[in-house]
Amino acid sequence: MKIEATAVIMAGGKSLRMGFDKQEIKINEKNLVHIQADILGEIFNEVIIISNKPELYKNYHLNVYKDMIKDQGPLGGIHSALVNSSNYYNYFIACDMPNINTEYIKYIYEIIFEDKSKNGIVAKLNDWIEPFNSFYTKNLIESIEIHLKNGKRSVFSLLKKNKIIYLEEEAVREFSSDWSMFDNLNTHHELSEYYLKI
After folding, report:
1. I want to staple 96 with a disulfide (CB 3.0 to 4.6 A). Which of 22, 100, 102, 189 is the partner?
2. MobA-like NTP transferase domain location, by residue (predicted)?
């Protein structure tokens, strides 16, 4: 039985360090976003893509949404996803994160599903918060809109204002001892290193 939640692939960003649009990263000749969508589609009842280049996905079967509030970075994409998704609970991953751990996803979903008072669950490494590979609820929509209206674009400062579950490092490493499920492919070097591992 699939999770009653939406998986969101965040395919925005300027990709400056990579030198080409990270939405077009390919792994074994297949677009990474499509690989992510196939994996997530096995466990979620809905998968959507947030991208300001929907033409890249015209031959794919997923709904693609642009940022509703333009030029606001990841928070603008999170806002658009929460508004357009069909579910209260929403899982977020970036399009350059190749290591999806479905057991971890199910684990954190169960935690936030059991605690209806919280609006998100994120992993924490010392003082660092991982904004993706996380769940957020539709309850954050209004808070994000106020945050952006006040000229604030930081996901971290938004989370501090809301009721969020912070999953401590020890619990997270039970699923990813080397923290690799949070890896991003930001540069050609990182992409080359990833190719060597697979």
Report:
1. 22
2. 7-157
CB-side exposure of 142: number of CA atoms within 13 Å? Answer: 1
Annotated binding-site residue numbers for Mg(2+)? 96
What are the residues whose beta carbons fall under 8 Å from the beta carbon of 161, sequence distance 6 or more?
143, 147
Residues in the chain: 198
Distance CA 150, CA 47 (A): 30
Residue 195 has pLDDT above 70, yes or no: no
Cα–Cα distance between 59 and 52 in angstroms, integer?
A: 16
- pLDDT per position as a tens digit, 88-125: 999 999 999 999 999 999 999 999 999 999 999 999 99
Angle, vertex CA 85, rays to CA 154 and CA 65, nearest 5: 75
Q: Which residues are annotated as a binding site?
A: 22, 67, 96
